Amino acid sequence: MAGNYISICTSWFASCRETRVYRMNSVKKQSRLTSVLVFIAILMLATSAFALDKNQIIQMGKLGLNDKAIMGAIDSAGDELSLTEEDLGELRLQGISDAVIEHLKITGHVKGLDTAPADGAPADGDVEPAPAPSTEETEEEKAERLAAEKAREEEILKKAQELNQEKAQEDARQKRLEQMARRLPEAAELVEAGDNMEAALIYLEFLSLQPEEQGESWYEAKFGLAKASFQEGILSGASSPLLEVLLAGADRPHFVEGFRMLRKLTQEIGYRPPVLEELTKLYTGDLNAEFLAEFNYYMGKFFFDYNRSDLAIEYLQKVPNTAPDYPEALYVMGVAKLDPTVNDTAGALYNFRDAIIAGEAEPGGNEEILQLGYLALARTWYEVGLYDVALFYYLKVPSDSSRNAESVFEQAWSYFMKNDTKRALGILHTLHSPLYEKWYFPDLFILEAATYLNLCKFDQSQVALGEFTKRYLDKQPRLSEYLANTTEPKDYWTYMMTSSGKSDSELNGPPRIFVNAVLNDLEFYNIYRVVQNLQKERAALEANVGALGDFGNVVLERVNEQLETKIEEGGILVQQKFSDLDKELTDWDLKATQISFEIDSESKRQLETQLVNPNAAPKKAASGTTITVVAADWQSWDFDGEYWVDEVPNYRSSLRTECVEQ
Amino acid sequence: MSSRNFIMILLVTAAASLFAAPAVAQRAPESPLEEDLDNYWSTERDLPVVSGRIYEREGRFGLTLFSGLLSSQPYWWYIPVGGRISYNITDQIGIDVSGNYNLEQPTELQDFLEASLGAGFDPKTDLDDRFIWRANASFVWSPLYGKWSFANNKLGHFDANLVAGLGVVSVERPNLQRDEATTEIVPEGHFGIGIAFLFTENWSARLDGRFYLYQEAETESNEGDLRLAMPVEFQVGVSYLF
After folding, report:
1. Complex ipTM more than 0.95, yes or no
2. 3-state SS, residue B176
3. What is the pLDDT of residues A312-359, one digit of tens each?
């Protein structure tokens, strides 16, 4: 018996593994699995031989066990199962198959039949009779045995019922799956008509029936669900099925449409998980050139965002000049070439130039790329040390651009670096205008104080330092205090969300100037956008959660988790940014103190020089100049306190040095 | 600023915003926070043409004394003398109330008629309405603000305004039969344009034109008809803002 059990058990494991494979490929194999499981269950229960009679065989037949299972039970029953010819007749009448009856005969469970000895085993007649039990079974033992047998039989019966029920359910599932598969075209029409949630319900029900993965229906349902969610604004809900659709292959029918949805998801909620790199392993050669341009740009930008500049350049280079993304591709490629691992400054400059040319060629002009391109060229030339060239490009950034403030600020540095104090001070004056008051430029005043110091304009230098103290240093204690008393990232986030539109006196934390510095941080802005989109998504989900059932609850839970994580992340970022500002301001304070000392010592030295030599001539200014073309229609007049938007970029200082030759 | 890393950070930051910026450019701000963010992240931002305006009017009252000339009527010309009190709700929008008394002088046409008709001519009954005084309330919109120069020297600032309002005019009016005249108060509307030259924070000079619209006196031949007259007045004044 033990040998038989082991043999069957091994066969079960094989079947089990095989069955797992079948599950992957075809659910139609389920019924076969059920039979095997029934059989195994019976055997598992029959850990030792037990008595089996014809009634139990009949019962197993009525329960729907297949022949294999019944034969297994017969084999497990051992020699105690002994039937007569009449019993066989009854079994036949009760529907037991011939195969089972034949099995009973072969295995020697039928009395009065001549069975051939198996594999050299001695014939019945040759076998020594089994030794008689040494002692008679007592009544108590018999009762115990019968009770055990009864319990076992009941257990078999229960298990068989359960498995039978599972089989029935599986049949029902299969039937339902087929029904739902027939409704998929209807769902696709609903998506096209904008009835997204109704369609999503059909797709969800179909997918809950566990259709064959990667099968046509599964693919259609996944794509339909992604599209319905996407159209409904449930972007997080769309992301998972969309990813499965894309990874299913570029040769599948919805790859192109799905990819365009992915681009939108990346744009809206910054969705670009690392697994998207797998897309580069798909064969896309059969797709049209227009799509390939989009694909290559997306992957190039994807690798750029993950700091893999080489790969980024490789993909961006494949974007043809006819593609709408061509200017952007050139620009990103230029930035990638400035990566120290690539270090191709000349190539970067060409890319920026070409990006601008391509941006200008677009109908209406690609203003975004033009501004970015000019700034990139200016910054690169500044880095090279050609300040005039840098200034030429800085001046190309329009004054109504949000990037203009950075451009003007960097112009000030360019003029300062080339020692053109007139223009440097003019630009600093520009930056003091209300048009730039929302920008955080503490070093502006330090730069101004240093410039005045170089001209021996000590009073003005002190005024600049005083302004620095008033606008920044005096506000620092509130920042430091807030940082010391606030530990929860969520509080930082809430503070940022509620501080707009309030004056410093209405705020109970860092003053506006520090809030503005955080608002100007791209990372903060990106998190803010994602949070906004997640909140919109949550609202859309909450409106439909009843209809979406489990899927809705799962996605809602996921969105809530993401929202919480993002707010936490945003709060940490704000805290970090505030902390950086606090430290940075302390550094600038140190520099301001140094300038203040220099003002004192230099003014004393100048005074001494004048006392020694009252006729000493002012030192000739060793200043640089900047070539400017003044048109005939230009008009110049003194600054009278008003900042006119057309005048702001064109201020000049008329100050001369007051330093005395030593 | 001079470090290469700094430049790289700026450029990479700009590149990273490539996906974000178009979305910003397209949407309208929905909250103060959105407005603040637009300041930093939109491709174009709305800039006020003038910031730190020297001559601010918002929330201020003004007192104006003026005189002028109303010479569009056939039988009299007038020298209006009056005053105006104004309140500026914003730098561009305001309201005012004004009143003036009209010092009348006969025109050459009246002199001619008088000379021709002799003792039988009575200007009170034989001619049209004679203005005595008028009082008005106006809505003022000053969309233009600028500075001007003469021979490349900046002389000052100005603003120009459009005016519309309602009021009353007191007239000496002949009756239908033209046998006697009475003093009546008649409603009128008006509109006009003006320019103020701003010299200091408080003082300015004003040039204004007013077009009045009112129902003039009826005669037996046009009884019941709508006969609108539109006298035109030119004013010169001095204003003090407080």
Report:
1. no
2. coil
3. 999 999 999 999 999 999 999 999 999 889 889 899 999 999 999 999
Domain co-membership, A551 together with A641 = no
B111 and B177 housed in the same domain: yes
Q: Are residues A298 and A259 in contact, defined by beta-carbon separation less than 8 angstroms?
A: yes
pLDDT number for residue A614: 67
Give residue A653's identity as a one-letter amino acid code: S
Separation between Cα atoms, residue B215 and residue A5, nearest integer Å: 120
Q: Which residue segment(s) compose the domain that B95 sits in?
A: 61-241
**Concatenated DSSP letters of A199-255:** HHHHHHHHHHT-PPTTSHHHHHHHHHHHHHHHHHT-HHHHHHHHHHHHHT-TTSTTH
Q: Quick one: B109 and B211 in the same domain?
A: yes
Residue A657 domain-assigned?
Answer: yes
Contact A635 B149 (CB under 8 A): yes
Closest residue of chain B to A325, computed from CA coordinates: B18
Taking the whole predicted model, whether its pTM rises above 0.80 is answered as: no
Based on the fold, state whether residues A44 and A74 are members of the same structural domain. yes
In a domain, B225, yes or no: yes
| Boundary of a domain, candidates A118, A152, A178 | A118
Segment holding B79, helix H or strand E: strand B76-88
Q: How many CB atoms lie within 10 A of CB A218?
A: 19
Query: What is the number of structural domains in chain B?
Result: 2
Structure tokens at A170: 């599986």
Q: H or E segment at B80?
A: strand B76-88
Domain termination residue (choose one: A611, A627, A653): A611
A328: closest CA among A292, A344, A352? A352
**Residue B3's pLDDT band (cuts 50, 70, 90):** very low
> Does residue B19 lie in a domain region?
yes
Judge contact between A535 and A556, C-beta under 8 A: no
Which residues of chain A neighbour B144 with C-beta distances below 8 Å? none
Task: Quick: pLDDT tens for A436-471.
Answer: 888 888 888 888 888 888 888 888 889 889 989 998
Within the 295-314 window of chain A, which residues sit less than 8 Å (CB to CB) from chain B?
Answer: 301, 304-305
pLDDT reading at A125 higher than 60: no
- Please report the residues numbered 328 through 367 in chain A whose beta carbons come closer than 8 angstroms to any beta carbon of chain B: 328, 331-332, 335, 338-340, 367
Residue B46 in domain: no
- Which segments of B89-202 are extended strands (E)? 93-106, 130-150, 153-174, 181-198
Instruction: Name the token pair of A608.
Output: 């001494």
Residue A75, both tokens? 């084999």
Residue B48, domain member (yes or no): no
Alpha carbon distances (Å) from A133 to A127, A139, A149, A199: 17, 15, 20, 72
Cβ contact A332–B23 (<8 Å): no
Tokens found for residue A396? 């190309």
